[in-house]
Please model this.
Amino acid sequence: MEVILAAPRGFCAGVVRAIEVVELCLIRYGPPVYVKHQIVHNDYVVSSLEKKGAITVEEVDEIPIGARVVFSAHGSPPEDYESATSRKLDIIDATCPLVTKVHKEAIRYESQQRRIIMIGHKGHQEVRGTMGQAPMVLMDDREENRLPVWDKDTPISILTQTTLSIDDTAQAVKEVKNIFTNVEVRNDLCYATTNRQEAVKDLSKLVEIMFVIGSKNSSNCNRLREVSESQGIPAYLINGPDEMEMKWLKGVSSVGITAGASTPERLVEAVIDVLKPSEVTTLSGMEENVSFLLPKTLRE
Model:
């Protein structure tokens, strides 16, 4: 059996930064360090940090008054910051800078008196954070009848969740433009989302099945699985070798492996160890040299 690895795959710059923020807080201040929502959507990463003293919570009110809190990479709505301030929490913001950019766009569009349509998935933490920045309407590509009833000449700006499918997002934008005449679109899909999806498209031409390594609640991992399936290649989203079923490999001679932007490379290596391939190659792809500064309080 041959294994072909997608490139790029795994951690993006925003995830690296968020994990480093929690680790530095644990080293500098000692445990416990509270984390508002999973720092990134990967069970292995979250569990590893919790073993070191991080405590993941879903509500700010769960955090003791005066404690330290790290806000997750996905971003949070303003009311979470207000609640944290009222509880006298030491706030350290690990929001991905690319998500922060979308937040700023939302505020700017509102100041320009443009109606905002957010293309994203209902309930996702990033969507909750962005929709808290300004009044906007959510357009979920998984639902029908998702467009607002406005005058066709209404000034509209489109924002997108950073981890969506490239193709699905393009289709949603097209639907908006088919109805409204004054539409401004910013491409908010992050570089990592775009690069990993394009890599899967290339890899799908060379393999019989695809393993996407990552957690079930990871948006970008689910999109990678969907992209593979859209290319006619069966894809399985697993967080590690324990979730792999050998029956999937019956009669298969070539296996593709990719990993979501919140997936550590050690999980990819663990899957390869179980597969015991005769050959492992890496498909050449877009080179990524992106990095983000840590929050000011942690740069010393």
The chain has three domains: 2-11+191-282, 13-96, 98-185. The chain is about 35% helix and 20% strand. The CA atoms of residues 41 and 218 lie 5 Å apart. The longest strand covers residues 254-259.
